[in-house]
Design brief:
Helix 2 packs antiparallel against helix 3. The protein has one domain. The mean pLDDT is 80. The protein has 86 residues and is mainly alpha-helical.
Length: 86
């Protein structure tokens, strides 16, 4: 396991930037599933940033982001698919 907090901080910052850029301007950004995966990359990056500071804060943040973001993104995916069927 990585014990250097700076490595976790830099890896998390890279994942946040890459996930956000992928969701905003990346390939297949109109596909909601790809956008959801890119946002999950950013969520894991935020978790790594918090992990550099406090383990409990990182765990609670990851659980909260997953609990709130997943239903919202799944509802958006279902709406897009329902719109394509009609």
């Amino acid at each position: 396991m990585v014990s250097d907090p700076e490595a976790l901080l830099y890896a998390g910052a890279f994942m946040v930037l890459a996930g956000t850029a992928g969701a905003a301007i990346g390939p297949a950004r109109s596909d909601p599933v790809v956008k959801a995966l890119n946002l999950d990359v950013a969520a894991v990056g935020i978790c790594l940033i918090f992990l550099a500071f406090n383990h409990l804060l990182a765990l609670l943040t990851y659980i909260a982001v997953g609990a709130f973001a997943t239903p919202i993104l799944m509802r958006a995916i279902l709406r897009v698919e329902a719109g394509e069927r009609e």
